[in-house]
Amino acid sequence: MDQTTEQFRDHYADELAFGVSKFLLDHGQLIIRRLLNSLASPHSTIYLFGNGGSHAISKCYEYALQAYACSRKLRVRVQTGVDVHKATLLVTEGRAGSSFVDVLKTESADGNDLVVLISGSGNSDNLCEVARFAEQRGIPVIALLGSGGGRLSTIIPSADCFSVPLVDQQISEDIIQSLAGLIDLDGLTGPAESWERAVSTYTRNLQNAIRQVPSSFISRAAEAITYAFFNRKHTWVLGFEHPALSVCAEHVAHNLYWDAIYEVADPPQRMIFSSPTACDFSGISNDRRRGIVEILTGLSQLEDDGVGLMFSMTDNHPALLSLCDRFRQSGIPAFLLCGEGQIQVEGDVVNMHRTGLRRPQLQALVAQTFGHMLGRLIRMRLIESRGAARACNLSNPVKFLVDFDLAQRRLLDA
User: In what order do the strands lie in the sheet with 350-354?
Assistant: First the structure.
């Protein structure tokens, strides 16, 4: 398993590095200039719309733009669509996805604003609806799309569509998210040579960080989560310290719940807790800050075992330390991917890997790629045990992991 995982990990790291470098060098500076020009306007809103994993990516962009604006004392308004509490108020007309057009109508969006559409397939109905509406109302639009661009590339002018250079849709998601880690760099609007150096350093750090995640760490996490699925145990996927890490944890949980069982025959039940978001819980936890993460993630009273998967910038965040203690006390295996730290882990319950990264958006991206690799390994294990709805050749496991991403929408469209 470790050798298979190692080969797949290295392939993923190299392909992602190639794709990130090409996408950022071809389009990155132009996209960031469009975003920052919109930030500079005091009366504009940047609307970032995407579904599923693309929505999680849009949230990472939101946090990056807010950090940039805060550091420069700019007023900024970023809107990423419809939260779960408002979703039931909107009409979806029987199709998947919330109506982002309703958001634009409600807020009277106009030519001073900017709409950013994020889609791996480029075929989401509600995003195509937004593109047509924006064209009619004269609202500027840019689209960050997977390979080929899908239907969105036929609606939006080519100069406003930016497609990734690789077909693999999960790597495409990582490529699109990579841009969020460069928004707050100084000198983005300077000479091309400065941008090229920044991209080269960023890409090298990303590639090295992924390659340095031990294959045993990935394999053991995949085995523990697969065991939890088969035995009706809980899986916790949690992010700490920076909102981008929390969002990426939810992205990973989304992949594990929906995509890791794609075409698996008789898939096992999954019981997954993901990170509580700040917008959902900041208010109700004001008077009960201590222990709130444990309560909201179902860890306050452990009645059964399972597995924990955690992402953090350091290994000594108070809530993280508290949860690790609970995992130890209950004998629940936990896997922590953190940036830096000094805490020494004792025993085999809490498994840790430190990436050495200090930039939260880059750490979040590595966490997301880790989750993408993990999901594919789990899917392969499930198919090995349960079989698949269609013929799957597992004789070359590395080739299977490379060839089959977890992109349901693109596969369903095909």
Answer: 271-274, 234-239, 306-314, 334-340, 350-354
Among 80, 74, 73, residue whose Cα is nearest residue 37: 74
3-state helix, strand, coil in the chain (%, to 5): 55, 15, 35
330 neighbors 308 (Cβ within 8 angstroms):
no
CB-count exposure of residue 94 (10 Å: 0-12, 13-18, 19+): exposed
Q: Are strands 271-274 and 306-314 parallel, antiparallel or unpaired?
A: unpaired
CA nearest neighbour of 402 among 393, 413, 390: 393
pLDDT in tens, 220-231: 999 999 999 999
Residue-wise pLDDT tens digits, 17-38: 999 999 999 999 999 999 988 8
Is 334:307 a contact under the CB 8 Å cutoff? Answer: yes
Q: Which residue has the tokens 């050495």?
A: 356
CA–CA distance, 370 with 222 (Å, rounded to integer): 11
Among the residues of 212-287, which ranges form H helices? 215-230, 243-258, 278-281
Residue percentage of the chain with pLDDT more than 70? 84
**256 and 237 in contact (C-beta within 8 Å)?**
yes
CA dist 270 and 167 (Å) reads 29
Separation CA 47–CA 38 (nearest Å): 11
Q: How far is Cα of residue 164 from the mean position of the Cα atoms in its chain?
A: 16
pLDDT grade for 92, boundaries at 50, 70 and 90: low
Q: What is the pLDDT of residue 105?
A: 92
Give the whole-angstrom CA distance, residue 122 versus residue 154. 10
Angle of CA points 317, 320, 324, to nearest 5°: 135
Which structural domains are found in the chain, ordered by start?
Answer: 2-208 (3.40.50.10490), 214-413 (3.40.50.10490)
Tens-place pLDDT, residues 337-377: 999 987 766 666 789 999 999 999 999 999 999 999 999 99
